[in-house]
Amino acid sequence: QSGHYGREHQERALSQFGALCQFVEKSLEMYRGELSLVIYPLFVQIYLELILGNQPKLAREFFEKYKGQQEGREDDLYELTTITTKEALQLNSIFSHFRSNKYVIRMCKDSFNCLLSHLQDNSHVLLLNLINLHLYVDVFDGLPKQPSQLALSNSTMMGDGMKSVNQQKMHYGVIHPPALLNALLDPDEFDDPGGEADSDPKKKKKKEKMILATVKIKDKTESHAPPPGRIPYPPLTEADIAANNETIQELTGRYRITHGNQPTIAFYTFLNGTEVVNCANLSEDCKLLAAGCQNSAVKIWSLTRNKIYKMKEAAELDSLNLADENIIDMIIDDRTGTQSLTLYGHIGPVNDVASNYNKSLVLSCGNDCTARLWSLQTHTQLVSYRAHEDTIWRCAWSPLGHYFATGGVDRLVILWSMQHIAPVRLFSGHLGDVTSLCIHPNGNYVASGSSDRSIRIWDMSGGGCVRQLTGHKGTVTSLVFSPHGHLLISGDEKGSILVWDLSNGSHTATLSNHTDTVTSLAMSREGGTLVSGGMDCVVNTWDMAFVVDNCETELANEDVLINMSKTKNSPVLHLGSTRKNLIMGVGNFYSTDKI
Q1: Sign of CA dihedral 165, 167, 169, 172
Q2: 10 Å Cβ neighbour count for 132?
Q3: Interatomic CA distance for residues 456 and 463, integer angstroms
């Protein structure tokens, strides 16, 4: 490889790179954007070639001369400057991967032919060798990329996602039970202002509208849903059935958020004392709040008048008749009711918490490399899961229960089952820490975001990566699926929110109104509204129906942003949406001088 070339070859490579930069700058505007995509990977490869060739001084001169060409790559350039020896390159996982794997670039055939002609006509053999060794150019027919697409490509760490990955079959649909499907239909869609509510023509019209809306949702979701039993889930427990019935009952008559109907937001603030809150999570119905603390504690609060009760002791349970129809109520010890609960078990800070669908279990993870399962019925730790080799940043439940996922510093996403102490699957592919997790509404896929600025969607059944989404300019910090499963929304540390179409892995929209890290995302029950919160102490409410209907156009904030609300110096830790579409949030309060 050219890392073993002499000084003459190295200087020739620098000369050829300078000529390439001038060629790109003077090329036709319609091709310039795509041609510029090769500048950054070649810049990095030449720099690393010089380091491997024991020319650190020449490498530094090259870096200083051409770093201005790498706009928007400040974080990458800073890390690149730390590599000054062969040993430093070996210790850097990202640029070692950069060196040993091919950087992916997608460009149209005309742009590629322009590039190839320039290199061949000027006998730039060294650059051609570098491209063959370290770049994969995915050439497509058609027009060059639009500026919005180029912006996504220019921000990635290892180039565009492989097209072959995003062409894999993905069952992104969701099958809703008929009762739940009817409850999810927008009630305002069937309002009939004026006229007799009980007249037959109106009833007939309302029924026809409901049938059409039902068919629309089914076409969008059920046609792409996974076959039953693709992922083995246990039968529903009585608690699950009760939770489902409660969901259906509460969904009816919910509030519809629009530009004319502004959202109602309830925000809980932690006033920190000795226990510093690292993370927080609202249950699926926003009736339970869990928090992980710096002092290793997991704290639980009931946000309603319903207290948290403990089961009776074993001796008392033995005397109960298990066949009694009220056995669920009989096993509860009425004397133990409390509005809050503190659980200890972790050795070190707790980084994430999550409660399951029926609020009987809480999951936590932390710096001690463990994920721990807690019972809210016994107020004790049930299991300590160990497989990660370093700090665990995130944990997430499947919406259907039973399975959960964890991810952290070791760059692994691990899938667990409540039935086994050992991992069910290990997903490997990220180049940086796993910083966000979310499981698909149909319980078949895990989405993971990373500090490598990419998102991967993993098949829980087959174990492979079925979508690779690239375009973020910073660490991916939050993820949420749409309720019907066809969209994924992601937020990053730069304050950007990206919307992805899971049918083909394409980017459909970018939402920008945060000035700092997006820490939490949540969607309304029917999927018409997105809520985002960040370190900028702002909660934004977005019109997702407008986003979906206008995904091919440039979106203006006045069209898509329904509401922007500021907290009182409280960066947002977590957001949720109740079944009535009341938005709820949680955050730490900081004095003004710390913001």
Answers
A1: positive
A2: 11
A3: 12
The torsion angles phi and psi of 339, rounded to 5 degrees, stand at: -85, -15
In sequence order, the 6+-apart residues with CB closer than 8 A to the CB of 259 are: 543, 562
Q: What is the mean pLDDT of residues 435-439?
A: 98
Lowest-confidence region among 298-312, 393-407, 410-424 = 298-312
According to DSSP, the β-strands at 350-355 and 340-344 are: unpaired
pLDDT tens across 156-209, in order? 888 887 777 888 999 999 887 666 666 666 554 434 434 444 455 655 554 454
**Measured between alpha carbons, how far is 77 from 81 in angstroms, rounded to an integer?**
6
* Closest to 2 (Cα-Cα) out of 37, 48, 67: 48
CA torsion 102-463-166-440 (nearest 10°) is -130
Q: Tokens at residue 482, please?
A: 């749409």
Q: Which pair of tokens denotes residue 120?
A: 């061949």
* AA letter at 483: P
Q: Exposed e or buried b for every residue in 171-193, given b needs 16+ CB within 10 A?
A: bbbbbbeeeebebbbeeeeeeee
Most confident listed range (154-158, 275-279, 536-540): 536-540
Tell me the β-bridge partners of 64: none
Alpha-carbon span 10 to 59, nearest angstrom: 10
Which two three-digit tokens encode residue 395? 């944990």
Helix H or strand E encompassing 136: strand 135-140
Please give the Cα distance from 153 to 472 (Å, whole number): 9
DSSP element (H, E) containing 220 = helix 200-221
| Burial class for 476, CB neighbours closer than 10 Å (0-12, 13-18, 19+) | buried
Helix (H, G, I), strand (E, B) or coil at 6: coil
Q: 553: which 2 tokens?
A: 């156009």
Reading the block at residue 369, the tokens are: 């490399």
pTM of the model: 0.88
> How many CA atoms, within 13 angstroms, populate the side-chain half-sphere of residue 117?
10
Strand partners, 587: 269, 572
Helix (H, G, I), strand (E, B) or coil at 296: coil
Q: Which two tokens stand for residue 386?
A: 């160990």
Alpha carbon 294 to chain centroid distance?
A: 24
Strands of the 487-492 sheet, one edge to the other: 476-481, 487-492, 496-501, 506-512
